Structure formats: structure tokens, C-alpha cells
Amino acid sequence: MQQLHTPHVVVVMGVAGTGKTTIGPLLAARLGVPYAEGDDFHPPANIAKMTAGTPLTDEDRWPWLDAIGGWAHGRAGLGGVVSSSALKRSYRDRLRAAAPGVVFVHLTGSRELIEDRMSHRQGHFMPTALLDSQFATLQPLEPDEAGVAVDVAGAPEEITERAVDALEDLP
């Protein structure tokens, strides 16, 4: 497999269970750039809320998004991949305000597929019970947003390959 290099900072986004933590590092390796796990930017209070099954509010998310945006800003011109649910346009706008050149890879899939994957993963703080709130909050990428939608059906390597191909087609 040929390794590609990109000066872009890519935000791998989507609802919980789409595979951001799996696809993000694979995509970063293919692009030859570092990966940052978006969950690592959450303050402990956010993780406690999600572990308890309580959806985060926008106020909870702003410091988390600002931390991710700061990382992305620091990688501008160098490239990088970071995961973030980035479910709302306002969240993506906040990330773009910190790092104007970011592009998004929106991992998409059916609720049934994602729920099935979530029910089989272990050691993650996000319970399946919050999936409905994630889908209710989700605002897909709009035509004026730099990014691509990638279906999460199939093996991680196939999904990563689709993401790489889609990113190559971005202007």
C-alpha cells in the first residue's frame, strides 16, 4: 500500500460506534501523519457524564472542541488526523474557527449496524443507550463544508481505503 502525505488536518467524525477510534489511526498511517484520539481531550467531568448515560450539553462540549481545535491548529500545514464526533454544524464551525484548513471524514452507517458494533465493544465509556441522542443531534456535512462522507460497512481496511480515495478527490 502506498503511503500518502497530506498537509490537511482531517477530523474523523460521526456518531458513537462508527469506528472513529479504529479508522482514525489507520487513516493517519496511510496519510503519514500523527493521530490524536478525540476522547483524550475530554475533561474528566464529561467522561463521568457519558459513563452515567447522560448526554453532554453544548456547554460541556465547548472546552473539548477548543482543545481539539488547538491541536488541529498546531498541525496546520503539517497534517494530522483527530477523531471528534463533531455532530453539529456549530461544533464543526468551532473547529474550523481554530483550524481553518480542517477537512472532515464523516463516517456514516445504519443505526442497526452501529448499534450492533457498539454492543460488541468492551471498555468504552459510551453506552449504547446514548446512540439515539447521537443520531438526534447529528447534522450531516453540508455542501459548503470541506469533507466527505464514508460508509462504515465492511472491514476497517476497506473503510480506510474509501476514506483515502474520497480525500484524494477533494479540491
What would you say about this model in short?
With about 170 residues, the chain is an alpha/beta fold. The chain has helices at about 20-30, 45-50, 60-75, 90-100, 110-120, 130-135, 155-170; strands spanning about 10-15, 35, 80-85, 105-110, 145-150. The protein is globular and about 40 Å long.
Give the CA-based shape: globular
* Helix percentage range: 40-55%
Q: First CA to last CA: what distance?
A: 23 Å
Strand numbers in spatial order across the main sheet: 2-3-1-4-5
Written description of the protein model:
With 171 residues, the chain is an alpha/beta fold. 45% of the residues lie in helices and 13% in strands. The chain has seven helices and five strands, in the order βαβααβαβααβα. The chain has helices spanning 20-31, 44-51, 58-74, 89-98, 111-120, 131-137, 156-168; strands spanning 9-13, 35-36, 80-83, 103-108, 147-151. A five-stranded parallel sheet has the order 2-3-1-4-5, sandwiched between helices. Helix 1 (20-31) crosses helix 7 (156-168) and helix 3 (58-74) runs parallel beside helix 4. The longest helix is centred in the middle third of the chain and has 17 residues, at 58-74.
